[in-house]
Amino acid sequence: MSKHPCDIWKIARECGVILREGFEHSPTSRKPRECFCKPTLRDIGQDHGEAHLKLVLMLMTGTKINSAQLYADMIKAVSSVIIRKPDLVRSASLVDDFNAIDLGELRRRAQDMNCPVATTDVLRVLLMLHFHQPSQTDWIDNMRAAA
């Protein structure tokens, strides 16, 4: 697969995201729209193009709460869901649907599950369940109530 050219600085600027160096990261002083995972952004942009990366960042920064979740695992999960469910991109409610998700709460749940797989993989599944629309809504609602 050929790599796409990707200027992560330009995309970040267009999305209002501030790129920081990894060594500057402090969990206690992290601010919304700050991103410390430039290699993740570069990989996604080179693999799927700048437009895809821009969409991922725009979806993740739609609310102030979600804009504080620019962690590599969450960025990879959102990217993966968009790739695997291309019908979402055509949805008129895509932005509102993402804004309705508390990505921080979702990430905390994924970490609390302590599954024997990467948190990114758990996040992918949780996001896929959120956007899975068929008759399984009763099952999903029951699962949410049990959590």
Specify the overall morphology: globular
Q: What percentage of residues falls in helices of 4 or more residues?
A: 55-70%
The average pLDDT score comes to 90
Radius of gyration: 15 Å
The portion of residues forming beta strands comes to under 5%
Total of DSSP H or I helical runs spanning 4+ residues: 9
Structural class: mainly alpha
Oligomer classification: single chain
Q: Say how many strands there are.
A: 2
Helix and strand sequence: HEEHHHHHHHH
Q: What count of structural domains?
A: 1
User: Strand sequence of the main sheet, in spatial order?
Assistant: 1-2
Biggest sheet, in brief?
Answer: 2 strands, parallel
Provide the low-confidence segments as ranges. Answer: none
Distance between the termini: 40 Å
In short:
The chain has 147 residues and is mostly helical. It contains 9 helices and 2 strands; from the N terminus they run αββαααααααα.
